[in-house]
Amino acid sequence: TQSVYTFGGNADHSDPRQKDKTITGGKGANLAEMAGIGLPVPPGFTITTEECVRYLAEGADFSADLRAEVAAALAHIEKAVGKSFGDAADPLLVSVRSGARVSMPGMMDTVLNLGLNSETVEGLASASGDDRFAWDSYRRFIQMYSDVVLGLDHGLFEEALEIAKEDNGYFADTEMTADDWRKVVAEYTKIVEREQGKPFPQDVNEQLWGAIAAVFDSWDSDRAKVYRRLNGIPGDWGTAVNVQAMVFGNMGETSATGVAFTRDPSTGENAYYGEFLVNAQGEDVVAGIRTPQYLTKAAREKAGAQSPSMEEIMPEAYGELARVFDLLETHYKDMQDIEFTVQQGKLWMLQTRSGKRTAKAALRMAVDMVDEGLIDEKTAILRVDPMALDQLLHPTLDPDAPRNVLSKIGLPASPGAASGQIVLDSDKAEKLAEHGIAVILVRVETSPEDIHGMHAARGILTARGGMTSHAAVVARGMGRACVSGASDVSIRLADRTLRIGTTELKEGDIITLDGSTGEVMLGEVPTIEPELAGDFGILMEWADKHRRMKVRTNAETPADCRTARGFGAEGIGLCRTEHMFFDADRILHVRAMILADDEAGRRAALQNLLPAQRADFTEIFQTMAGLPCTIRLLDPPLHEFLPQGDAEFADLADKLGVGEDHLRRRAGELHEFNPMLGHRGCRLGITFPEIYEMQARAIFEAACDVTAEGGDPVVPEVMIPLVATKRELEILRKLVDEVAAQVFAEKGRTLDYLVGTMIELPRAALMAGEIAEEATFFSFGTNDLTQTTLGVSRDDAARFLAPYVEKGIYARDPFVSLDVDGVGQLVSLAVERGRATRPEIKLGICGEHGGDPASIAFCEETGLDYVSASPYRVPIARLAAAQAAL
Ligand code: ADP
Ligand code: MG
Ligand code: MG
């Protein structure tokens, strides 16, 4: 098969493999697509991801076939541009760019101006008639190539450049003359020779293959691996390589380079958004070396910026760009993130892709584009990443709270509010976050090496960089609050202190960021709940219209129930009753019950718990107003409720009026070697039926009372945990039925109710056909089902699961995303067998997986009736359920 595809010039873009991102990578596929619709794309070629995979597997060797295909493709560029690679009189220069299936920070940086050496630089100077430009390009090339391909420390080059500027008394790079650059090049060449013990490669083909190898190798770099792990990207995709004729944004005042979005990626507003730099190349914009200028006059005026916008100083190129924007949106039917260069007034497109956006912007664009007739409702639903909604569901700064603002000149790079301790490096941020400490990562600027620290931090503050800087792009993707380019932040790493505005601070001090305004405040500023109307409400309505499964919530307090209902929960899928046992007024009775010597003692203690349990259920039923509520009877091993430490034992002995020794002996008797598989779940109900009796009584009394108040009739769903056999359920169901009958007789009314079970043991899944004879509903407890099927304890898995995921043993953490291949089979089987016995059986999932979009898709396929998720995950589940149904 073909390994190299050409684009631009008169290339043929008809092979579908070329537009397939899995083959040519995102960048390569889109370059071909843009060239195909007639946009100005510098000619080039793409080496497929398949070649990368082969290269990495076969030990870093290039085949003769590949070399031949590359040579032919290079000839295509030469012909299209009318210059030859390595030509001493008028050389073709190229860029070498990585490009995986999805955009991936952490991959190799682009090498620009490749093809320059001590001869061709002279040719470039004479052919362009611009010495300064030629030597500027050459020094850029040496620096980039040395850093990226040769692996030399880029600090050495930066230092040399700083010295050169200082010697001349310059402030900016733009003050450097051709001669100055020539001297810098001489200095750079010396550095390379000294550092690697041999001269900078002069052979342009050696340069090219060196860069291609570096791109392939970067797929397996540590940075790339970290990024892949955090984002669930498989390690076997590989990256493509794009080699493309250079166009030059550094040819004087009529040249420029920039990045832009067809709509505002932060708010979603339908207005062009972007930044550019005159007389600059490539990464200058993103690197934050110079402050970029705005694209449009409106944006410049809104920001109150002085330097003119592109619209004002390059009206023609800007007009062309605007035309391209419209073409791209009509073609891709989505907001595009593009990179462009203007060479002496002519616009060139260097990249386009669907733009990353905040959740707020994603919603607004989806809703707007339906209004504009660009996409339909279903497409709009599919456009919004359910997990991204998380950003909108969390609190923002209370506008009325007092604020001590330290800085407000930073950019609102990624929305949301975050407070935490200042931390100045990423390793430390990660460490503190592991201990549950909220941190704000403060850096001059971030690089791919900071990914783990950014992930660990609540928010990110940088002193340099625009809205498209590394920090901004990555933070938006991760949903972290970010303020970038706050140039009044100065950091002194030596003594771990910093100044923000005029205030001196040190690492560990608390600050608050508002990523929606760019403000930085001292201390922790209070927050308020999010606004869920508007675009959010509209999209959710569409989602509700298109989904089949119901969405319930896992909640056990009235406050959680209210939050979940506000987020659209249609019932409770899991109300854990053990949480109710821990409250201050109850734990004493719970302990008295557990430590009692006999049934009579237990019953007496349970009698004291009954009113509190009944009150809990009453409030929950009132809050849920007739929506279905699944209540799980006591599940955890009893010893979890025991006193901890000497003080608690002494206190309890005192309160109960029994000896401490006696208590300790009883507690010792409850010790279990493996409580997860021990005396818990329905086994408690079998051995201590009085506990479940009390709980059932509390449920039915509350249900009768609430119904009697004239509300919607309550239909409680009583759920028995950890069932393995039909007989267990038969015994406990009878117990629940008896209590219900008693309560109904006492209250003089009957209510509908269900008794069902969790399916959370492999045996229960296998025996689901038989168990369904006793159960009117199944709820898949996929946390325990995953533990018991994999034989992995969730609480101990942290130590080995990350390496397992890294090595691809599990594609994702099976406690986060359901192991569809394994555990999923048990679920499907139980569904099938349960339905065979009882066709109308109600089926749901209540594990953590009920809020995970991939697992929700599985539930849809399997035909479950509902998923149940924690309150903040309810909107995510609603959207994911709709996406799964489409
Ligand atoms: P990244 O994936 O990090 O964005 P790119 O391969 O897109 O890396 O390259 C980064 C920047 O380098 C581009 O935005 C563009 O400004 C510049 N660049 C890449 N190729 C060329 C080229 N052929 N001519 C001019 N500039 C280029
Ligand atoms: Mg790019
Ligand atoms: Mg369980």
Automatic annotation (TrEMBL):
Q: Which family does it belong to?
A: Belongs to the PEP-utilizing enzyme family.
Q: What class of enzyme is it?
A: transferase
> According to its UniProt record, which reaction does this protein catalyse?
pyruvate + phosphate + ATP = phosphoenolpyruvate + AMP + diphosphate + H(+)
- Described purpose of this protein according to its UniProt entry: Catalyzes the reversible phosphorylation of pyruvate and phosphate.
Keyword Nucleotide-binding part of the UniProt annotation: yes
Task: State the InterPro entries in the record.
Answer: ATP_grasp_subdomain_1, PEP-util_enz_mobile_dom, PEP_util_AS, PEP_util_C, Phosphohistidine_dom_sf, PPDK_AMP/ATP-bd, Pyruvate_phosphate_dikinase, Pyrv/PenolPyrv_kinase-like_dom
Pyruvate phosphate dikinase AMP/ATP-binding domain: which residues?
23-59, 64-303, 312-370
Names of the cofactor(s) = Mg(2+)
Q: Which gene encodes it?
A: ppdK
GO MF terms here are: pyruvate, phosphate dikinase activity
Would I find ATP-binding among this entry's keywords? yes
Sorted UniProt keywords: ATP-binding, Kinase, Magnesium, Metal-binding, Nucleotide-binding, Pyruvate, Transferase
Identify the stretch(es) annotated as Disordered: 1-25
List the source organism.
Answer: Aurantiacibacter flavus
* Annotated ranges, domain PEP-utilising enzyme C-terminal: 534-884
- The EC number(s) this enzyme carries: 2.7.9.1
Q: Where is the composition biased (Basic and acidic residues)?
A: 12-22
The residue ranges of the PEP-utilising enzyme mobile domain are 439-518
Tell me the domain of life.
Answer: Bacteria
Q: What is this protein called?
A: Pyruvate, phosphate dikinase
